UniProtKB/TrEMBL annotation:
Belongs to the enoyl-CoA hydratase/isomerase family. It comes from Conyzicola nivalis. It holds the Pfam family MaoC_dehydratas. Residues 18-133 form the MaoC-like domain. This is Acyl dehydratase.
Amino acid sequence: MREIEQRGLYFEEFEEGVRYLHRPGRTVTEADNVLFTTLTMNTQALHLDAAWAATQPFGQRVVNSMFTLSTLVGASVAQLTQGTIVANLGFTEVAFPKPVFVGDTLYAESTVRGARLSRSRPGQGVVTLEHTARNQDDVVVATATRSVLVWCLGSQPEARS
């Protein structure tokens, strides 16, 4: 029987300018916001205190932006880096142009902005991804540029069981 294991892309499979749409979307719940906020010790009342947040410019609690960023990047993993990533190298140009509220659905997409072989790590390459999160109304709520180190085809060591 033929078997196929889901995986991300190897260095040679990334094409500059290609946009990947990550589906399904993820509807943000009350529990998501409160749990993530408290797990990360972020006591910002804007995320936790409904009465106080109602007096602020958005008129309600705003979902923790780090949850939004984590969800955006996490949505890309299965399609782009599952099992092929060596390391997450860093983020630049992170922005949250519009707020996310409980009940919003996040849809993620990633565009390959560049790829180069690593100069110091043979068999690996650096890929630059531009991630975008949109809500259910197609409004951009988060963007980030991320660099990842990925394996080249045939260079990844065998998995140990």
